[in-house]
């Protein structure tokens, strides 16, 4: 393989790696405050004790998964009338903060990180 091809391959790998990084790191304390006000009534203060067993457990979920879900509810790409309403007023910063908060909590699920 020529030097030129190795350089191109390395550039492609680096570009792919950086596109997978979250856009913004969240502030856990700010996320806790926002989550307490907006999310805890349905998902529980600890992100586990939901008022309905069909509601997802948020504690310990990956922050990028949570941020994507909230962003998709906000944009309408993911459909749920209640969550669309809750996410509508969230800023990108709010989404990053809430995601960081729930990701920082211990997971009740048996998932391997």
Count of strand segments: 0
Can you tell me the overall shape?
globular
Terminal-residue CA separation: 36 Å
Percentage of residues in strands: under 5%
CATH topology, what is it called? Cytochrome Bc1 Complex, Chain D, domain 2
Order of helices and strands: HHHHHH
Which structural class fits the helix and strand makeup?
mainly alpha
CATH superfamily: Cytochrome c-like domain
- How many domains is the backbone divided into? 1
> How many helical stretches?
6
- Which architecture per CATH? Orthogonal Bundle
Please outline the major beta sheet: none
- Measured as a percent range, the helix fraction is 55-70%
Rg, Å, rounded: 17 Å
Determine and state the CATH class. Answer: Mainly Alpha
Unreliable sequence segments: 17-22
Could you characterize what this model shows?
- It is a single chain.
- It contains 6 helices and no strands.
- The protein is an all-alpha fold and 113 residues long.
- The chain has a single domain (24-104), classed as Orthogonal Bundle (Cytochrome Bc1 Complex, Chain D, domain 2).
Please supply descriptive tags for the structure shown above.
single chain; 113 residues; mainly alpha; Cytochrome Bc1 Complex, Chain D, domain 2; 6 helices; 58% helix; 0% strand
